Amino acid sequence: MNILKGKYKKINLTKIGGLNNSNYLFQINNKKYVLRVPSKDNKNNFINEGKILDLISQLNISPLIKYHNTKGVLVSEFIPSSKITLEIYNSKAFIYNTLLSLKKLHTNRCDIFFNPFNEIYKNIDYLKDINYNFHHDLNGILNKLKYIEEIYRNNMDLGLCHNDLNTSNILYTESDIFFVDFEFSGMGDIFFDLATLSWFLNDKLKMELLNSYFGYFNLSLKEKLENYIFVVKLWNATWSFIKSINSNSHYDYRLGGNMILDDLINNYL
């Protein structure tokens, strides 16, 4: 780790949060950096993440990476980011600037793939294997998932996707949007990213998002976005259930997953 070699014997680390990883802020020669250390139960493919980071290094959509290894330890330059409030998140300016950076990502190609349908099936199979106590009947939810998968199996809008665009992975400045944590990134349908961004948007802003990204809006785009919001929510729910098994976090992942399934059953089936 070049910036940590040599004369630097002691570096003060300040914890700055993280769900699946621990993140720390530190300073060398009046320049700030962020250290990311994956949690012990994080089994993501960091070799693939490294390839993605190399691929997008010239796009100016991510902080400059100073170090990254196959275990997921990462050091990047610190970019001061404003807190993304609901007011900011639900603004046309935020949507527009986020989509500018996202389009730069989506136009790239690589040999790494992320299939959210397979990931959901894999998560559920694992949970069933360990006799996880689900509070919901999953049959209707899985039938809906299979229906959506079948519709878009041969109708994908393919691009290099981030696949985890929650607000903790978006850095917001006055003029730019940057993304961090590319652990789940790979080729897939760009609607997975668009749906993640749309999770908390009202119908008017969803229409604004689609119109800003594609240059037009129609009911087919809206239907696909809504279907992928279902997929995004279900993926997050199954991830939360797995996280609840061995997490020491104060956040109740099991409750969070159950709330998402309540939403899917009440509003999407």
Automatic annotation (TrEMBL):
Domain Aminoglycoside phosphotransferase, residue spans: 17-214
UniProt KW Membrane keyword: no
Source taxonomy: Bacteria, Bacillati, Bacillota, Clostridia, Eubacteriales
InterPro entries noted in UniProt: Aminoglycoside_PTrfase, Kinase-like_dom_sf
MF-aspect GO terms: ethanolamine kinase activity
Keywords per UniProt: Kinase, Transferase
UniProt record, GO biological process: phosphatidylethanolamine biosynthetic process
Pfam families given in the database record: APH (PF01636)
Tree of life domain: Bacteria
Entry GO terms, CC: cytoplasm
Protein name: Choline kinase
Protein source organism: Clostridium sartagoforme
